[in-house]
Fold this sequence. Notes:
With 315 residues, the chain is α+β, with helices and mostly antiparallel strands. Helices cover 35% and strands 23% of the residues. It has a 9-stranded mixed β-sheet. Strands 7-8-9-10 form a 4-stranded antiparallel β-sheet.
Amino acid sequence: MKVVLVVHGGAWAIPDEMASASVDGVKAAACEGYTVLKKGGSALDAVELAVRTMEDNPVFDAGHGAVLNADGEVELDAMIMDGRTLTCGAVSSVQNIVNPVSLARAVKEKTDHIMLTGRGANLFAESIGMGTVPTDSLVTGYEKNEWEKHKKYITGIKELFNSQWGHDTVGAVAVDSSGNVACATSTGGIRNKMVGRVGDSPIIGSGGYADNLSGAVSCTGHGESILKVTLARLIAFHMEQGKEVEDALDLSLSYMGDRVQGAGGAIAVSTSGKWAAKFTTKRMAWSAVENDVLWYGLDPNDKIKGHLFQFHILQ
Ligand code: ASP
């Protein structure tokens, strides 16, 4: 079976000064996740590791480096889903967890629930011995400056899309050597969001979806628009109906544009290893590895061949 790992580092209008760091970050995450698959690991382990890599990288709006809410605080959301069984886990509005995606996985594996939020998520983290950090340690100087500069939520969707987002949401999808798919998504949301606002990212079927009967999807973009059209499930639905992965993405993103004037991006992989990365925002950082070849892009129509890192591990 062919193994494939695809990641995104968020949509919107990534400014030039952040472009190469964003691209380097997605490439590194794709290589980390792919290494798991090459060693015979599961799609679930691969997407979790790829997303953790990006949560740890301050260039992205997830984990360390997340954007700040209206009160200048970090509030993180994440989800993970296993396409074999549709089992999934999510957390929302967590503040002092370094890797929300791993807490989401623990919710999936150690509770009878799918999502835990805020204080409950923190109590659960404590109960399983997951370390917490001072919330401030997740805040970067870059984000503090950006937040000081733009102290207002941008309300018009158009203005929001054209705003220079320095960093963004992350996600990963994978198919492993047994033909199982999985997805994971993690975010700090949108800068200056209301306290307690939760977007699409941790919502099963909106920010991500994985089903061995169709494939795995992870989304990014305007959360309120993605929620209205349940974008990840819509893409999976089109794949289930026999659409090519690329067409399923195009159809669903253009539906979101037409129906609710929303923009965003998504990555998807089918159980047979077909994959695509598509977006209707100005840019989206993404990277994919298949057959030991790494691909990446940032601008529309990019599909650039790169070099695998850690190649020694793969041989
Ligand atoms: N979808 C995320 C949210 O609305 C943000 C993003 O993908 O950039 O919270």
